[in-house]
Structure formats: C-alpha cells, structure tokens
Design goal:
3 helical TM bundles of succinate and fumarate reductases, two-stranded antiparallel sheet, 135 residues, mainly alpha, 4 helices
C-alpha cells in the first residue's frame, strides 16, 4: 500500500450474488440473451468458413459435408442461430437511434426515423440477396 492510503482492519461488505442474478429481471435476461446471440452468430460464421475450407478439398469431401449438414441437429442449430441473429439485429437497429444522432442543418432527425431507416435498409438488402439467390 502507498503511504497516502490508510489501512483498514476490516473489509468492505460485498453482498453475495448468485450466478442466476440475471434471471430475476426481464431487462437483464433480454440483455444476456442478446450477448448469447453473438455466440451463435459466431458459431454459424465458423461453420460457414469451414464449409469454404472443405470446398477447396474437392467436390466429394464438400458433398459429404453438405449431407451431414442436413441432419436434425444442424437444422435445429440453424433455426436457433437464425432466431438469435434476428433478435440481435433488431436490438442493434433499435439502439442505432440512441447512438447515431442525425442532423440536417438545425433540425435533428427523430430517433424513430433513424430506427425506421435502419429497418428499411435491412429489408431492402435482404430482398436484394433473396432475389439474387432465387435466380
């Protein structure tokens, strides 16, 4: 300890916190689910990168990998990853209005318009991707 800090014979009280503290409040629970969603998105990206790696190994290896991805476990993972990705995206776009202030001259664009613009852009890009892959 430095000379300027006095030593105390007692420790500060720390209330014990159970590991499930975040389950008691809905806002904390939703925040933790948003954080957990990042894990599923990252796992999906790693799976996607692994598919590209196997694609370089030839059509036979890649074909076998594609067959394994049609199993029930992977389909369940895809559904969960999709739900978490949508939840993560929605919460991020709602947050955009709070972190991004748009000014046009002296007028400040309302946060609801910033959020609506983000969702509209998401819909347009998603429609473009669907159209591209549907052809």
């Amino acid at each position: 300890m430095s000379e300027s800090e006095p030593e105390y014979p007692y420790k500060a009280y720390r209330r014990p916190m159970p590991a499930t503290w975040w389950l008691r409040n809905r806002k904390y629970f939703m925040f933790m689910m948003r954080e957990l969603s990042s894990v599923f998105v990252a796992l999906f990206v790693l799976l996607y990168l692994y598919a590209f790696f196997l694609l370089s190994k030839g059509p036979v290896v890649y074909g076998e990998f594609q067959k394994s991805l049609r199993s029930g476990g992977f389909i369940a993972f895809y559904v969960v990853a999709l739900l978490f990705a949508v939840y993560h995206s929605c919460t991020w776009f709602r947050l955009a209005a709070k972190i991004q202030v748009v000014r046009l001259g002296r007028w400040t664009v309302p946060g609801s318009l910033v959020t609506a613009g983000a969702f509209a852009g998401w819909v347009v890009v998603s429609a473009a991707v669907i159209t591209f892959f549907a052809m």
